[in-house]
Amino acid sequence: MKRTPSYYLQLGFTLLICAFMLVPVLMSVTAGVTENYFKGISSGLTLRWVQEVLSIYSDTLWLTLKLALATLAVNLLVGVPAAYVLARSKSRWARLFEEILVLPVAIPGLAIALALIIAYGGVQDLRTSWLFILIGHVIYTLPFMVRAVVAVLHSIDFRQLEEGASSLGAGFLRRFFDVIVPNCRGGIVSGALMTLTLSVGEFNLTWMLHTPLTKTLPVGLADAYASMRLEISSAYTLIFLVMLLPLLLATQWNGHRRKAQARPAVQTPAPVAKGVTS
Amino acid sequence: MKLDQQGVSIRLENCSKTFADGNRALQPLDLEIRAGETLVLLGPSGCGKTTTLRMIAGLEFPDAGGRILFGDEDVTRLPIEKRQVGMVFQSYALFPNMSVAQNVAYGLKVQKCAKAEIRQRVDEMLQMMELSHLAERKIDQLSGGQRQRVALARAIITNPRVLLLDEPLTALDAILRDRLRADIDRLLRSLGITAIYVTHDQEEAMALGDRIVVMDHGRVAQIGTPKQIYFQPQSDFVADFIGQINAFEGEVRNQWMTLPGGRLHCPHLADGEARVYCRPEDIELVDMDSVDAHLQGVVEQTQFVGDRNRLWLAGIMPRQVLVESSGRVEFAPGQRVGIRVRSEKMIALEPREPIRSESVREVSPC
Amino acid sequence: MKYTLSGRWLRGEQSARLLLLLLPVLIISAAFFLLPLARLLVISFEGDQWGANYWQALTEARYLSSLIDTLLLSVSVTLVTLAISVVCGLFLARNEFAGKSLLVSLLTFPLAFPGVVIGFLVIMLGGRQGLSAELGLMLDGTRWTFAYSIAGLFVGYVYFSIPRVLLTVIAAAEKLDYQLEEAARSFGASRYRIFRDVILTGLKPALLASGAICFATSMGAFGTAFALATDINVLPMTIYTEFTLGANIAMAAALSILLGLITWLVLFLARMLSGADASPAA
């Protein structure tokens, strides 16, 4: 393939954008482990700031993890069955409900949080509990979970699979767990990763819903950015990025896996395929 | 392998089906399927054949008043999972999350058979269906023909009371279809199971069916053995739908029917307007100067298909007449030929009905 | 033969079962989304006069300028992000070279960064101790800073939006039909015309959809502005200030409703126009 000047121009531009995305992250990471950022790396590398962040903000870390897992649990328990119902129902009510369900995605989190506070802010026990934030996170992430699963269900002929299972004597629960759930695993995994990633980084809602005793990591970050020295902010950001990293890697891996699966199935496979699957 | 449980007889009484949108997919139907026979439901799409099959399966329920009996048991309101049927779906509905062996074992697992028994029966079944080497494969690693065999194995391993096959060969290419048709035929005969087979392919129906039910617009057009259906169609629809056929229509006087291209000898017909049918292979080509060349036409189009020539003749009837002749004789468009139809090869329909009755409301494909 | 009505055999107890499966989500949505939203709407109309808050929001300079600033900011973020993503997306979709997938990964991994972190990254770039400040010191002895103004917000939102839009554009560009371009070439169309008539037209649904999402998130985002703090007067900040400092809950509610209506409407229109799915969940 011949490389034209236009090719190099485009490559250069793309690399420039890549630098724009990458440089501040690298700067932030460096700042988090530098003794004195103002003086530069020559002042020496240290984990002092990271330790300091852990001593000040470790509770935000745990709360964030707890929230993310709880949000995921709720989404799995109520979201997957709901997705199944929405995918199989053809009624207008189901379509309407689907629209309502995904509405939180189209409305800024700030507005949703404000609405939640107006409606339930007066209930002290709830207002001061981490469950209040959980509610916000579920409302915000549930659409992503439901739609990821609905999309997969629409891409497979799950009705015929279910008819197949029932012709073999399987009742509803068996069909659901033997056939439906395993075959939309890809969508469930995508939805789960999305849920975790969104919950861990959620700020718009959480900032409004949190109390001094229920601070999540992003809330703590905003706190640190406003009041702490740059090195501590950077170290805190670094910890957050480390927390996100497994989710990012898993998302990338999941994307590649699903892309590979989406390729048309081989009609006449070579005999070697046996070794791959057994 | 013989099944422990031989098939049951099945009776449909007054079964009709109206869908929620008001579409009548099936007019009230009475049908008896004998134990152990292979019954083919044949017809164009939207004729109600699949609806009938799904009612027998328990995937649809008949309108009020309809009854479905397996042997003496009334199963009308029983859902499919309680009916002990085996079903092969058009797109097979194999579970992509399971291996071949797991797919085949699934029905037994649901029945809570012992692990050892499941393993043994699955092994036997895989062996019988020549699938043993594929046991651990995932479904998406199989060819169409292999999938089809897995679907069959999965459906019959549970010893179902009836085997239901919904166009199981439609998804395959022509060569594979021919081979698998023979395989299925052999399998059904050796199992001795009651089987109901839905297809729109008349050749498939002829090859597999002990009896064929030809359906049209939600009604039964004719029930009979393949030979009866082919040689003694009882309606224009059946005559037209099964194989290719020529219709001759005209005024009969003194045993001769007058046609645009000459005369047709119909000794069995009374005077008056009449119509007879004749299969392309039953029309003989005769020399133009022969005394038998009562009908004469012009070759408009020829098609050489190997063992025979297909000729479309103009000038005999307003519509072209299709004739089949030996593949070794040459014909050229424009050539004049004479034809003869022996009266014993003609199919006369009694009583007469208009061609493709339009009075029946068009039912959209279900 | 497709059985669009194959749910029939599930009638009766079956549809009750389906409803039961949907019930938890129904309750959650009703109790924690629809009901609060209704309360928000009711409160937004409270005050001396019916609808006075909305009238005030659309006439008083303080609110109106906030609304207009936010709209302008979001539109320019959307256009710039789309332009960048079209160039990079087309390039990445149509060329194969070593390290390409790494490049795509690097360009898209900030997808998961929340706005508040991006605010901090903007500070790293354009803050008092940031990259541009260092650069300024080197070049003319003054610290160049842009982070604490609407320019910083602009950079942050572009940063935030690039991964999303880029992924959509790459996916759409990979599906473009090369034969259309070849056909256009066979008619002697110029490169510019091909780009405009074939490529951009082909990408249009994707651009509409992802552009709408980009616009909506820029309108409603809060974290970046919050991290940059100081005097950025975008609508979410105005709402926040009304709510906390002004304790003017009715006004905050009215502004929230306005904001929500705008973002919802843009996403809705994009979905209508593109025929594709313009919801961020896609």
Automatic annotation (TrEMBL), chain A:
Principal location listed in the UniProt entry: membrane
Transmembrane segments annotated in the record for this chain: 7-27, 67-87, 99-123, 129-156, 176-200, 235-253
Localization annotation: Cell inner membrane; Cell membrane
Keywords: Cell inner membrane, Cell membrane, Membrane, Transmembrane, Transmembrane helix, Transport
Membrane topology: Multi-pass membrane protein
Cellular component per GO, a single term: plasma membrane
GO biological process: transmembrane transport
The ABC transmembrane type-1 domain, residue ranges: 61-251
Coiled-coil annotated spans: none
UniProt cross-references to Pfam families, sorted A to Z: BPD_transp_1
Family statement: Belongs to the binding-protein-dependent transport system permease family.
Protein name: Putative spermidine/putrescine transport system permease protein
Species of origin: Marinobacterium mangrovicola
From TrEMBL, chain B:
Pfam families: ABC_tran, TOBE_2
The keyword Nucleotide-binding belongs to this UniProt entry's keyword annotation: yes
GO cellular component, one term: ATP-binding cassette (ABC) transporter complex, substrate-binding subunit-containing
InterPro entries: AAA+_ATPase, ABC_transporter-like_ATP-bd, ABC_transporter-like_CS, ABC_transpr_MalK/UgpC-like, Mo/tungstate-bd_C_term_dom, P-loop_NTPase, Transp-assoc_OB_typ2
Single Gene Ontology MF annotation: ABC-type transporter activity
SMART domains (UniProt xref): AAA (SM00382)
Keyword Endoplasmic reticulum: no
Domain of life: Bacteria
Domain ABC transporter: 10-242
Coiled-coil region: none
Keywords assigned: ATP-binding, Cell membrane, Membrane, Nucleotide-binding, Translocase, Transport
PANTHER family: MALTODEXTRIN IMPORT ATP-BINDING PROTEIN MSMX, TREHALOSE IMPORT ATP-BINDING PROTEIN SUGC
Name of this protein: Putative spermidine/putrescine transport system ATP-binding protein
Automatic annotation (TrEMBL), chain C:
Residue ranges constituting the ABC transmembrane type-1 domain according to the UniProt record: 67-270
Matching SUPFAM superfamilies: MetI-like (SSF161098)
Main location: membrane
Positions of transmembrane segments: 20-43, 63-92, 104-126, 146-167, 206-229, 249-270
Localisation per UniProt entry: Cell membrane
Keywords assigned: Membrane, Sulfate transport, Transmembrane, Transmembrane helix, Transport
Single GO MF descriptor: ABC-type sulfate transporter activity
Membrane topology: Multi-pass membrane protein
Coiled-coil annotated spans: none
GO cellular component: plasma membrane
Keyword field contains NAD: no
Pfam families: BPD_transp_1 (PF00528)
Sequence similarity: Belongs to the binding-protein-dependent transport system permease family.
Described function: Part of the ABC transporter complex CysAWTP (TC 3.A.1.6.1) involved in sulfate/thiosulfate import. Probably responsible for the translocation of the substrate across the membrane.
PANTHER family membership: SULFATE TRANSPORT SYSTEM PERMEASE PROTEIN (PTHR30406), SULFATE TRANSPORT SYSTEM PERMEASE PROTEIN CYST (PTHR30406:SF8)
Known partners and oligomeric status: The complex is composed of two ATP-binding proteins (CysA), two transmembrane proteins (CysT and CysW) and a solute-binding protein (CysP).
Protein name, as recorded: Putative spermidine/putrescine transport system permease protein
Lineage: Bacteria, Pseudomonadati, Pseudomonadota, Gammaproteobacteria, Oceanospirillales
